[in-house]
Amino acid sequence: MKIIKGILNYLWEAVKESIAQVWTLLGFFIAWLTLTGTAQQVVGVATVVATFIWLATIPLRKED
Amino acid sequence: MTGTKTWRLSLAAILGFGWLFLVPYDAYATCVNYIQSQTIAAAYEGDTEPTVHTMDTCSGDDVSYQIPIATTITFDGVQYSNIYATTNSVITFGQPDGTYWTYPSTPSISLYSMDWFPGYANQTSGLDIYYSEGGFQLNLNMVPFGNWNAQPSTVNILVAITNTGGLAVSYSYQGPEYQNLRTGVRLHDGSIVSLEEWGATQVSPTAAPTLQAEPVVDPTASPEPTPISPEQQQAQAAEATQLAADISSLNNLIASINGEESAEEVSPEPEITPEPEPTEETVPDPDVVVEPEIITPEDPRFPDDTDGQNEQDPSTNPEDSGTSDEPSENQEPSPGPAPQEEDTSQSEDDQSENPQPSEDPVTVPDNNSSDNNSTGNSISEDELKKLNKLIGANDAKLLAKLTDSQKEQVADALGIKSQEIILVAELAQSNPAVAKALESFTEKAKQNADAPMPYTLADAVTEAQTEQFLADPIGALTNIDLSKVLSPSEWGKDMTDDQREKAQEVIVPVIIASNIVAAAMTRRI
After folding, report:
1. Where is average pLDDT lowest: A16-20, B75-79, B125-129, B418-422?
2. Residue of A nearest to B465 (CA)
3. Which of B109, B257, B318, B470 has a CA-to-CA distance to B47 between 20 and 30 Å?
4. Per-residue model confidence (pLDDT) at position B84
5. At B1, is the pLDDT very low, low, confident or very high (cuts 50, 70, 90)?
């Protein structure tokens, strides 16, 4: 029960954080569209990785 | 303290990354793309039980899929372990080849090939590959590229692999008889022979044989040439290597022309094979139905391969030009001291095929002068379109024929530097969006003639990428070449200066603005 509640809390936080970052993500998406070749791929991969790191570390940031 | 923290960290890690392990790698895949086909082909080593496998490809324009084969096969006396089927109805040996306007320079079999687009009109799978230890079968269902409402055509190709590695090809075609359909076999010596001469059999579409799960016992009437001696085989391999080196040196030549450092350069005169390697069955008699074709830029057919007949072969195949003796129109002794264009033999022959240099000034810039016509012959829209297509095709041989002034004009129209033409040509090969952008640039530039900023190739590429993303979001996001991503020294090298500049102009303000908006929105929440 506690675990489920924890997960639900996390998901809610993740949704809020995602919404808060949607403009940043939009910026990166436009950057990705504007670039070509390796630069585009690097930006795409970096954006996805950074997004997951951001979402995965929500609990850490809440700590403080 | 640590308990809670650890628990939270674990939870975060699971929720953050765990899905990666839960979602199957190909959860979104409904078809096999060309990269996956290579993986499948590499893994295929035959079956314990005779089985016919199916590969439902994602089709696409000018795409080559690797065909899984369980053994090496022999084509024209050379052994191969890699075979590719292209969506233009061509089987290529050794390497993929996206050539759509003529016969590929790669050893290959073209069976009713042209610039096809499989699977468009009727939304069925355009290219299905069936494979087994006994060979492979290709079923193509397609329309000509750009002619989306055309009646779909069907090509069925069955390639049986004999127990000695030989090939027996039968094929059928059903559909309109387009003028520029190509049927023929490109051999290692660069010559093209007809399918019948090579040994392929045309069958009725209604009586098409089906793929067997096991290799057939070598039928004496195999279309494969009878085995040749190791020396001959080596000679052929050496020829193929020489050809590859020639092509590469031509590319270097163009680069050096653009870099203004010409000088030495390639030895254009590639060994004139003393005798064209008599592989028993070649019998290249001159009346072959399918004759080599080259579409030079001046060829009215070149840009919009609408009405193709007597196409000619830009195959970048120096030796066939060297040996091929079409004496006729071929003079043009390339007197030129023109150090850069050093294309003695080969350049002659493409010039030869279009004896009427009349109607298209852009084209054959007369190989003896690299910049002799720098006088204001500005490039027309139509010519620009042709040249863009030439760049998109990355035809080194023809690109080398552009004079400096022509390069400058094209580059100017595209908003790039003339030295970047080769870069764009290479990029067009690896990035379909760039190829499309080049093709459609002229029209789009016309539409945007009134734009406050000059419309350049960078804009067209961005538009093409956006269209590509909207058409196939998953494909656009997953088509990543990790080897390049992991080589920081390569990052950004494949962009033109204009593209970089435009990216800067867009990205920096967008990210700053989006962060400001994000901060404002977050406060409100």
Report:
1. B418-422
2. A33
3. B109
4. 92
5. very low
Chain A residue numbers with beta carbons less than 8 Å from the beta carbon of B431 are 36-37
| CB neighbourhood size of B14 (10 A) | 15
CA B118/CA B153 separation, integer angstroms? 9
User: Which secondary-structure segment (H or E) carries B501?
Assistant: helix B497-524
Scan for tokens 């314990």, then name that residue.
B48
> B319: how many CB neighbours lie within 10 A of its CB?
24
Selecting from A30, A52, A59 the residue whose C-beta is nearest the C-beta of B11 gives A59
Q: Which residues contact B316 (CB under 8 A, 6 or more apart)?
A: B105, B243, B246, B247, B250, B346, B395, B396, B397
Distance from C-alpha of A31 to C-alpha of A26, rounded to nearest angstrom: 9
> Which residue reads 């005779």 in tokens?
B50
- Average pLDDT over every residue of B294-304: 49
> Mean pLDDT over all residues of chain B?
69
Tokens 């391969």 belong to which residue?
B305
Largest CA distance in chain B: 90
pLDDT at A53: 92
Measured CA angle at B392 (ends B424, B366), to 5 deg = 95
CB burial readout B321-360, b (16+ within 10 A) else e: bbbbeeeeebebebebebebbbbbbbbbbbbbbbeeeeeb
CB B126 within 8 A of CB B88: no
**Tokens 């002794």, residue?**
B333
Pick among B2, B6, B9, B15 to test the A interface (most A CBs inside 10 A): B15
- B489: closest CA of chain A, how far (Å): 10
DSSP secondary structure of B112-169: EESSEEETSSS-S-SEEEEEETTEEEEEEEEEETT-TTSPPEEEEEEEEEBTTS-EEE
* Number of other residues whose CB lies within 10 A of the CB of residue B519: 12
* Stated pTM of the model: 0.38
